[in-house]
Amino acid sequence: MRSRYCAFVVGDLRYLIETWHPGTRPSDVEPTPSLRWTGLEILDVGAGREDDTRGTVEFRAHWRDGPTTGVLAERSRFVRQSGRWWYLDGDVS
């Protein structure tokens, strides 16, 4: 999760696509150019250990867009396939 957040911060769309599960990945990922990510809080982690095949991460990602600030709160789901973790999707609250 932290690596995906960092990819959003620096605008590394290639990494985001490469870590998104092909079955749930959108055809296009378009960042908002004026949006700046300003912090990440990991609230909860469920499973995701070496022997697990599924995991969840609940987080808050803080952002700024000009004078406006906000928080994206999500519980993300991940799956381990072919020896690596893939982002599946998330429930935004």
UniProtKB/TrEMBL annotation:
Annotated YchJ-like middle NTF2-like domain ranges read 1-90
- This protein is called YchJ-like middle NTF2-like domain-containing protein
Species: Microbacterium pumilum
